[in-house]
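About this split. The held-out portion is used to measure sequence recovery: a designer receives only the structure tokens and must propose an amino acid at every position. Recovery is the fraction of positions where the proposal matches the reference. Here is one held-out target exactly as it appears in the evaluation file.
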């Protein structure tokens, strides 16, 4: 029986068709991967670490490579079967390698084993992180290469001319590599030699030195040319629009690139055109009439000829249309919604008003709520619509029901409008991205969101949503990677945060200001979390131990600021770049962040101990903020060595002592340095002159003992200089450089021991304080997206913490010094000045009439000086002036009347015995304008008290004033240091500057 079965099987095998037999025998005869090539691949792959996922790999064709990184590459197995590897079926040579989106991290070494794969025809290393490696000239050795893709792989440096040796190259994509550039010789060789190119993508590759005419001789076989964000300038060659096979042309975001589109005899297969943010004049009716094949048109922020309503009816063949950021206004162009083939519509960043219409199955006439004559006709919403982007307009009313019923809709962007009402119930599950943030939506989160099983991103922050968020809404959203529910004050997330086994693929989670009291438990299974924002909540106590295991390899940004955390322990996240613990209750020593950290803040906690020298191991740190703690001891001297990377260093309001860091590197990148409120001594480090980017320098409230550091005037970008309350001394003198402090807007030298005359020539060169009109426009603040500068200034007699510094803010404070002489007339040139404080000095002579030119001035304090003469009538024109203090001087005459001067009280003029008129009780009579005779006063020498104030004993020559002066003089001589009198006269103001 066994033999019979054997012969039967053998007979059936012989009777198999030839095709089946050959298929069966192919596996046994196919060459295996050659051992040297297998080894070369493994060595190349293992030269990198596995880093963070690139978020751009989530969409499109690269999504399959995103989770997890390729892991089939193993020694002893056939490399021809490895993921991303293709071999020649005859020889076994590796001919294609695709490692795109493999999370490779590290430099590409010049002698990497990759270059030994000489038979390579296709190489794709896109969306990895190669640390700014240069593209080796050895890439030009791949003689058979047809496709090379290094998109967004963090390569940099000059484009090697050897790439032009790849004469068989069909597709070249080097786009989105910041720091990469192409010079003219290399581009010329590329254009001349790569005659088979059909696709050339060089987006974001710097070409600032390239003439656009260099592209004139590109291959006539070219089908796709993309040069967005290249810095091209000049005129784009006209002949490029006549290439016979060109189907895609993108030259957008070259802000100084101009040219003209053909107006006749234009026969082209062009299907996609991108001219956004260029200087091309756009005659859209002519463009549409000529481009019969055009399907995709991207014209963001362009220069249009004519008004947009005239061309809208002619766009019926367009499938993708972007007209965002063009300042179009008026009623929304509803007729666009009639285009049946439209799949992508972007009208964001305009000024469209009104409500989205409701649509029925019949032709419906939509009347404007404001003007019934502006009616529009809408047949139906295109059934093929996939992306609707209306962000950043002025649309209002409720979101119409048809938005929830489009079966093909994948992306819906209605954020940053004024929509109200509830979020409706979604009828289909096609949505991938839903942006409803920054509106006025209310009510609960609809349960139908749970049906959106393909949803990748949900943004609903900054609304008025309410009710309980049940975890079951998210239980089926296995693809959700981006979730932002921040700033919905009436929304309860308690049951959501205690849930487990939901959102397994979450990458970005933002729950700021969400009233949560615990770190969400479902994060225990969040293997891919990279960005977590739980700031401004009520999370208390210690960070749970299980949380320290969350995202150990993936976590990139962590924001736990504005909570009530008391302890954090060891920080295990090796890939963490952004860590924010501001405004908590952290105690104990300073936490040690991972070595790769870029932003680290523990500001406003209760951290004690010293700053360890290990902080200097943070060789990549850009922002370091340890301010408002109880750190003590000295600043590690090695901290100055980090200035090649540090952008902002804030150590203010601690208990640091010793001398200031003395060495700052020649490549210093510091933009802000704040050491205010410590016990630091010694002079400022002159090596700060290396910090040519420095904008903010705050050494206030320390014990610095030095003359004014004149070398500061050479810093070209310095905007804020605060040396308040130190032991600076000597005369300021006039500047030594030709154009000192060209950008200075805030200078505070108060509470020091400077003497001599005010520096007249200095005020002549403070250009940033002169032209008020030049500073008007968009409201801006100092700093960037990661860190915004703050500073403490005296405004209108009070210490004010400016959490953010407006670019319009300008002030000068030289108070509480020993300056003498007159106020320079040149001060009147500073027409942008908001505040001026020369109080508590020894200034004499008359107030200059030029002060009346300071039309932006909001506070003026010249009190406690020896100014004489009348108050200039020109000051009445200072209509912005809200605070005026001229008390304790020798002014006389009539107080000016009208405008702001009618609002000031006696306090503005006290102890000027010669002043009369409103608001003083002393009326002006025949003796108006008489100044107290110099012979009626007796002045004694200065007396310096330990708190730094200087007094003159003034014996007034009439009545009880004479006796009071004698008594005061006796008191000074007998007691020596009457602090109580200082506090009475100055209201303890100076004491607020000193640390308790």
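Reference sequence for scoring:
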């Amino acid at each position: 029986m066994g033999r019979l079965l054997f012969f039967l099987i053998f007979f059936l095998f012989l009777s198999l068709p030839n095709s089946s037999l050959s298929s069966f025998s192919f596996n046994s005869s196919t060459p295996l991967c050659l051992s040297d090539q297998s080894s070369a691949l493994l060595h190349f792959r293992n030269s990198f670490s596995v880093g963070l996922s690139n978020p751009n790999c989530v969409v499109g064709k690269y999504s399959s490579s995103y989770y997890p990184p390729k892991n089939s590459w193993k020694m002893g197995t056939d490399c021809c079967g490895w993921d991303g590897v293709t071999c020649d079926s005859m020889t076994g040579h590796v001919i294609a390698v695709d490692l795109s989106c493999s999370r490779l991290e590290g430099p590409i070494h010049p002698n990497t084993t990759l270059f030994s794969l000489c038979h390579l025809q296709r190489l794709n290393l896109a969306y990895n992180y190669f640390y700014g490696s240069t593209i080796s000239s050895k890439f030009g050795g791949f003689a058979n290469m047809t496709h090379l893709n290094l998109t967004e792989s963090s390569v940099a440096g000059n484009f090697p001319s050897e790439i032009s040796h790849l004469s068989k190259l069909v597709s070249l994509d080097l786009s989105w590599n910041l720091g990469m550039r192409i010079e003219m010789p290399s581009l010329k060789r590329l254009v001349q030699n790569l005659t088979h190119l059909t696709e050339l993508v060089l987006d974001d590759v710097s070409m600032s030195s390239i003439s656009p005419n260099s592209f004139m001789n590109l291959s006539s076989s070219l089908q796709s040319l993309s040069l967005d964000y290249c810095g091209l300038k000049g005129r784009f060659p006209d002949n490029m629009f006549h290439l016979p096979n060109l189907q895609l042309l993108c030259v957008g975001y070259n802000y100084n690139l101009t040219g003209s589109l053909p107006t006749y005899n234009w026969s082209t297969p062009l299907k996609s055109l991108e001219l956004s943010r260029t200087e091309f004049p756009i005659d859209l009716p002519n463009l549409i009439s000529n481009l019969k094949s055009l399907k995709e048109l991207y014209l963001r922020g362009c220069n249009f000829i004519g008004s947009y309503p005239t061309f809208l009816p002619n766009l019926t063949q367009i499938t993708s249309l972007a007209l965002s950021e063009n300042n179009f206004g008026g009623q929304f162009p509803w007729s666009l919604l009639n285009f049946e083939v439209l799949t992508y519509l972007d009208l964001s960043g305009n000024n469209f008003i009104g409500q989205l219409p409701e649509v029925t199955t019949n032709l419906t006439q939509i009347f404007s709520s404001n003007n019934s004559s502006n009616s529009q006709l809408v047949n139906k919403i295109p059934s093929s619509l996939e992306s609707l982007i209306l962000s950043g307009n002025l649309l209002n009313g409720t979101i119409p029901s048809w938005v929830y019923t489009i079966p093909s809709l994948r992306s819906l962007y209605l954020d940053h409008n004024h929509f109200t009402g509830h979020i409706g119930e979604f009828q289909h599950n096609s949505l991938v991205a839903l942006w409803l943030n920054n509106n006025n939506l209310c009510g609960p989160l609809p349960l139908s969101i749970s049906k959106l099983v393909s949803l990748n991103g949900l943004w609903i922050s900054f609304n008025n949503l309410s009710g309980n968020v049940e975890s079951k809404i998210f239980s089926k959203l296995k693809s959700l990677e981006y979730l932002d529910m921040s700033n919905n004050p009436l929304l309860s997330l308690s049951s959501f945060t205690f849930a487990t086994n939901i959102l397994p693929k979450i990458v970005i989670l933002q729950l700021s200001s969400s009233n949560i009291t615990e770190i969400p438990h479902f994060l225990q299974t969040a293997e891919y979390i990279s960005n977590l924002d739980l700031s401004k909540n009520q999370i208390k106590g210690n960070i749970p131990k299980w949380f320290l295991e969350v995202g150990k390899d993936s976590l990139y940004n962590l924001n736990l600021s504005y909570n009530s955390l008391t302890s954090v322990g060891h920080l295990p996240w090796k890939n963490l770049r952004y860590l924010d613990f501001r405004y908590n209750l952290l105690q104990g020593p300073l936490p040690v962040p991972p070595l790769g950290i870029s932003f680290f803040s523990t500001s406003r906690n209760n951290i004690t101990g010293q700053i360890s020298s290990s902080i200097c191991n943070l060789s990549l740190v850009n922002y370091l903020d340890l301010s408002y703690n109880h750190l003590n001891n000295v600043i590690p001297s090695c901290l100055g060595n980090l200035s090649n990377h540090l952008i902002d260093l804030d150590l203010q309001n601690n208990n640091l002592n010793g001398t200031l860091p003395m060495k700052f590197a020649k490549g210093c990148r510091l933009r802000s340095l704040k050491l205010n409120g410590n016990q630091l001594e010694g002079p400022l480090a002159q090596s700060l002159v290396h910090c040519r980017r420095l904008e903010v320098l705050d050494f206030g409230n320390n014990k610095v003992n030095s003359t004014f550091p004149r070398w500061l005037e050479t810093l070209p970008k310095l905007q804020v200089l605060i040396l308040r309350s130190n032991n600076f001394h000597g005369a300021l003198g006039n500047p030594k450089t030709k154009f000192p402090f060209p950008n200075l807007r805030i200078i505070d030298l108060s509470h020091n021991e400077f003497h001599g005359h005010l520096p007249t020539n200095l005020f002549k060169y403070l250009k940033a304080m002169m032209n008020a009109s030049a500073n008007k426009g968009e409201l801006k603040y100092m700093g960037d997206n990661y860190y915004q500068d703050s500073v403490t200034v005296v405004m209108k007699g009070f210490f004010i913490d400016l959490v953010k510094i407006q670019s319009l803010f300008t002030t000068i404070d030289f108070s509480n010094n020993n300056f003498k002489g007159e106020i320079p007339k040149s001060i009147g040139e500073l027409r942008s000045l908001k505040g001026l404080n020369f109080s508590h000095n020894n200034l004499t002579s008359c107030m200059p009439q030029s002060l009346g030119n300071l039309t932006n001035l909001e506070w003026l304090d010249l009190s406690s000086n020896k100014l004489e003469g009348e108050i200039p009538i020109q000051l009445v024109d200072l209509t912005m002036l809200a605070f005026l203090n001229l008390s304790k001087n020798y002014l006389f005459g009539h107080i000016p009347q009208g405008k702001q001067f009618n609002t000031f009280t006696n306090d503005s003029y006290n102890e000027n015995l010669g002043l009369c008129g409103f608001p003083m009780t002393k009326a002006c009579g025949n003796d108006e304008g008489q100044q107290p005779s110099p012979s009626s006063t007796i002045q004694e020498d200065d007396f310096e008290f330990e708190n730094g104030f200087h007094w003159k004993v003034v014996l007034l020559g009439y009545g009880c004033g004479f006796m009071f002066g004698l008594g005061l003089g006796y008191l000074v001589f007998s007691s020596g240091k009457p602090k109580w009198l200082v506090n009475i006269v100055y209201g303890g103001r100076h004491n607020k500057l000193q640390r308790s």
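Annotator remark: The chain has a mean pLDDT of 83.
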